[in-house]
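User: Can you help me understand a structure? I only have the sequence.
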Amino acid sequence: MIRTLLSTVALGATLAAPAAALDLSEMSEAERTAFRAEVRAYLLDNPEVIFEAVAVMEERQASLQAANDGDLIADNAAALFEDDQSWVGGNPDGDITIVEFLDYRCGYCRKAFPEVSELVQSDGNIRLIVKEFPILGEGSVLSSRFAIATRQVAGDDAYKQVHDALITFKGEFNEVTLSRLADSLGLEAAPILAQMDSPEVTAVIQANHALGAKMDISGTPSFVMGNQMIRGYVPLGGMQEIVADERG
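Assistant: Let's start by predicting it. Here is the structure, written out as tokens:
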């Protein structure tokens, strides 16, 4: 029995083996002691087995996560892809839709910004949806409120201007800096600032946070790319690979 169980470990399948195959309760105390000693000696001589077992476990966890994410995307498809309160850019008829949850104060969102822009522009067949997802404090909330209010007051083109300016802005977000930002873009600041604390703006942020909770999103940037969830920053090459994979 000891040799059989040790063979299981030697094949790197410890984590995948049926519970009964490793039931030490069927052994005597002497057999258990001998088994543990033999396994320890084997693993010390062949430490790569541990990494093989960990790799198997991580692969299975990734598969389970992907399946769960696919279910989450399907269950929340309307809120993700058909929300008329979120800005839509890129190709509105694109064969791949990317949904980005972002915070304007997030360093990795800022890092991803030019790469997402390059992906959308160079591909030409991607529909991009931006979900305002402020999670990093009052400055994040103010900037998101300003962006949402801009769209509600001045439309999609103005939102895109503001979005691009906010994600590259250096400094603190407050009413003074946001008013100056609007002026620099040729927008009328007063009605946008007046709209920022409106129930309509609050409703958008609350809906996005509720959707994020359903999607198991706790950080930014997070992406839905076709039928895949990406939680965290991915460089341009990685995004291109995901898009190619989605297209099959």
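Now, to help you interpret it: The longest helix spans residues 48-75. The chain has a mean pLDDT of 88. Let me know which part you'd like to focus on.
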